[in-house]
Amino acid sequence: MLSNKIEKAINKQINHEFTNAYTYLAMSAWFDNQNLSGFAHWMRLQREDELSHAAKLVEFVVDRGGRVELESIGKPKGSYNSPKEAIAAALKLEQTTTALVNNLFGLAAEEKDYATQSRLQWFVDEQVEEEKSVSEILAKLEMAGDSKGTLLMLDHQLAKRGKS
User: Fold this and answer.
1) Alpha-carbon span 90 to 44, nearest angstrom
2) Is 3 left (phi over 0), alpha (psi -120 to 50) or beta?
3) What pLDDT score does 162 carry?
4) Cα 124 from Cα 69, distance rounded (Å)
5) Residue 116 to residue 112: CA distance in whole angstroms
6) DSSP-H helix ranges across the chain
7) pLDDT tens for each residue of the chain, 164 residues long
């Protein structure tokens, strides 16, 4: 059985994951509008990842006899000045997610909720991968500067991303 504190914190994380998914969907649409279909594809797959993360947490709460409480999701930002700005926003999103996961893991440790710690270890590890992936794209955009050719090459590379 989940404690009330843990249940509330996991519900907050579930809603954060759904918010991320919605944000990545908006980013995908923006990239499509910029004719950068590879970036858009990458963002759509990020959206699917976030939905998967939320589903894992929902299942865990239910399995532990808890109650899932979904909240409203606000309107995501739908426009950026550049691909670099959009990717930088994605990195901030992932960094926020990492902080929330770490806080949740810490709370589970305080509560001596070993089952939650065990489940959250996957999320801790996943966030290392998520931040690395977005950081690499941002670094490549920074190296590219104003080079449209390099931007198109990166777009082509991102189009090859497969499902996780």
Assistant:
1) 12
2) beta
3) 81
4) 23
5) 9
6) 4-33, 37-63, 83-110, 114-144, 148-158
7) 899 999 999 999 999 999 999 999 999 999 999 999 999 999 999 999 999 999 999 999 999 999 999 999 999 999 999 999 999 999 999 999 999 999 999 999 999 999 999 999 999 999 999 999 999 999 999 999 989 999 999 999 999 988 65
For residue 63, count other CB atoms closer than 10 A to its CB: 11
Return d(Cα 19, Cα 128) in angstroms, integer.
20
The one-letter amino acid at 1: M
98: Cβ contacts below 8 Å, ≥ 6 apart: 127, 130, 131
93 Cβ neighbours under 8 A, 6+ residues apart? 20, 23
pLDDT value, residue 1: 86
Residue 128 phi/psi, 5-degree rounding, is: -60, -45
Sorted by where each begins, the domain ranges of the chain are 4-158
Query: Which two structure tokens, joined as six digits, stand for 141?
Result: 């955009």
Output the six-digit token pair for 40: 């858009």
Name the residue type at position 135.
Answer: S
- Superfamily of chain region 4-158: Ferritin, core subunit, four-helix bundle (1.20.1260.10)
